[in-house]
Specification:
single chain; mainly alpha; 2 domains; 10 helices; 3 strands; elongated; DNA_brk_join_enz
């Protein structure tokens, strides 16, 4: 609200507060995109450009960029070997561990963003926004060979057209079909979030990341792993397996070549490249 109690036109101080609030979760470049949307809204309403001549706002944006730094993404990828380490440290006689393993497999093989299969901390589950049990379907009742996942909302889908992912069988235990069917048998078909813990709380990004790091630490693999490590690992593994670039982009639903920033090249491969130059 501006000093007159109206949302429009937005005052510079309001825009500064908006930018600093966004900085908790977004990079400076993404904040500028949000501010551009505010500008577009004003122009559509016949109002002057609210970003023009805003020197304080520019200083705030520069400060955010400086604080965030320009370091590259240091999150580590979850590879097939790490997935096996996770599996070996789970007790699959426990519901929560079966649920966790299914979430890991779906996230990895589906190239999922954390927002596509978890519910934000403190948020109420929304059937229209979040992944629900009814968004999963098998190709057949008996011995299904693939599952379909309905992603209703995605970062690169601003108009919420949705998309259907098709996941086939892997090599047990690294098999999204097997993991999901085992989980769904325990979970049942009651409406609600797909991934829900035994205490009734939906799976959140924070819980997933913390549990992942704790499991891997117990397995002797400490590091900066997070819920997004599955997506990074899927892109990396696909690239190393020789999957064509355009298919990686399709599998991960990237709208540009941004997927290249997710690919982590092993040091051993880099060192071997030296021989090819001789």
């Amino acid at each position: 609200m501006n000093s007159r109690g109206s949302p429009l036109p937005a005052e510079e101080w309001t825009l500064c507060l908006f930018a600093t609030w966004l900085a908790d979760d977004l990079k400076s470049a993404s904040i500028k995109v949000y501010l551009s949307a505010v500008r577009a809204l004003h122009i559509e309403q016949g109002l002057p450009d609210p970003l023009s001549g805003c020197l304080r706002l520019q200083r705030v944006l520069k400060g955010i960029k400086r604080c965030q730094g320009s370091s590259s993404d240091k999150r580590l990828p979850v590879t097939p070997a790490i997935l096996r380490a996770i599996y070996s440290h789970l007790d699959l006689s426990q519901y929560d561990d079966v649920m966790f393993w299914a979430a890991c497999c779906l996230a990895y093989f589906g190239f999922l963003r954390s927002s596509e299969f978890t519910v934000p901390n403190g948020a109420t589950f929304s059937q229209a926004l979040h992944l629900s049990v009814h968004d999963i379907a098998a190709d057949q009742r008996v011995a299904p060979s693939r599952i379909q996942v309905n992603i209703k909302v995605s970062k690169t889908d601003p108009f919420r057209q949705g998309c259907i992912l098709t996941l086939g069988q892997g090599r047990s235990p690294l098999c999204p079909v097997e993991a999901m069917l085992n989980f769904l048998e325990l979970r049942g078909g009651s409406a609600g979030p797909l991934f829900v813990r035994s205490n009734g709380v939906p799976l959140t990004r924070t819980y997933l990341s913390e549990r992942l790091r704790r499991l891997l630490s117990d397995a002797g693999i400490p590091g900066n792993f997070s819920s997004h490590s599955f997506r990074i690992g899927a892109a990396t593994s696909a690239a190393l397996a020789g999957v064509p670039d355009h298919l990686i982009q399709t599998l991960g639903r990237w709208s540009s070549s941004a997927y290249l920033t997710y690919i982590r090249t092993p040091r051993s491969l880099l060192s071997n490249l030296t021989k090819s130059l001789c």
